[in-house]
Amino acid sequence: LHLSIRRQRQMCIRDRVNNLDEKQRAFNRGAYAAGFYTLALLEEQQFSIDSFVDAVNQLANCYPLLKPKLLKALRDCATHDNAVNAEELEILSAVAAVMDSPVPLIGDLK
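The chain above was modelled as a monomer; its predicted structure follows.
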């Protein structure tokens, strides 16, 4: 479960955030929101689309009451800079669909 969450968060921030410190802040925001305080950011070469798909499928099988918390944490990762682009929204929506859960509200962002 921890590896699934880590891969999910990293796919969310991989393409948009270039600065490693900014990536770490985005990752930590999502991980902390989910209650995972000891997760570490993987190196980019350690994950792929296939590993992301596997991770999301594993998350789809988690305890139903945990799903909203994980999706809100993914949302927090995506919104770390107070903006959500189309790719981030698509990833969040796709993960929510696979998990058979509603997309968490985004709120007022840029």
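The chain has a mean pLDDT of 81.
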